[in-house]
Amino acid sequence: MRVTVAACVAAIVGVAGxxxxxxxxxxxxxxxxxxxxKTELREAPGFCNxxxxxxxxxxxxxxxxxQAASVSLYFAGPDPDAKLVExxxxxxxxxPEPLARALIEKLGPPAVRRPPHLQWRSExxxxxxxxxxxxxxxxxxxVAPTDxxxxxxxxxEAGTTxxxxxx
Length: 167
What we know:
The chain has 167 residues and is an alpha+beta fold. The chain has a single domain (2-16, 30-157), classed as Protein Transport Mog1p, Chain A (3-Layer(aba) Sandwich). It is 18% helix and 32% strand. The protein has three helices and twelve strands; from the N terminus they run E-H-E-E-E-E-E-E-E-H-E-E-E-E-H. It has helices at residues 5-12, 96-107, 148-157; strands spanning 2-3, 30-31, 34-35, 47-49, 54-57, 61-64, 67-75, 84-91, 112-114, 117-121, 126-130, 138-143. Strands 1, 4, 5, 6, 7, 8, 9, 10, 11 and 12 form a ten-stranded mixed sheet that branches. A hairpin with a 2-residue loop joins strand 9 (112-114) and strand 10 (117-121). The protein is globular and about 40 Å long. The termini are far apart. Residues 1-11, 13-21 and 163-167 have low confidence and may be disordered.
């Protein structure tokens, strides 16, 4: 399945309508039909490896920054009603500038910018992107805000000791 750039990036921010002329962006909720804390394992279309954290791969692709990204989904356990706790987008042979620009356009300025790391925090998700300067693999993680251990891992990778403060 392939989703257009506009649909994917709009879905990244949760597509909540914002009334008026507010600069406040809607909170990040997930990507496309996958919503952190709501999507259940039974809804995952790909191949899933049941474990304490169940990884589901082969979930199709979305486009971000005019580039295809494969989607991996992580669920809190092996039960069919386990909730989605992380969405990982992988862009191979990534062109970093359009990817970073698309993320910043939809999520706002990152709370942490330590190349190659960009990080955001909203009510619905912690977002960590690894965007190298050259054409290599880019990663974008959308993590449930309740998954403090995973957020700590990603903030440590960026060289920060604590997660960025909520916006």
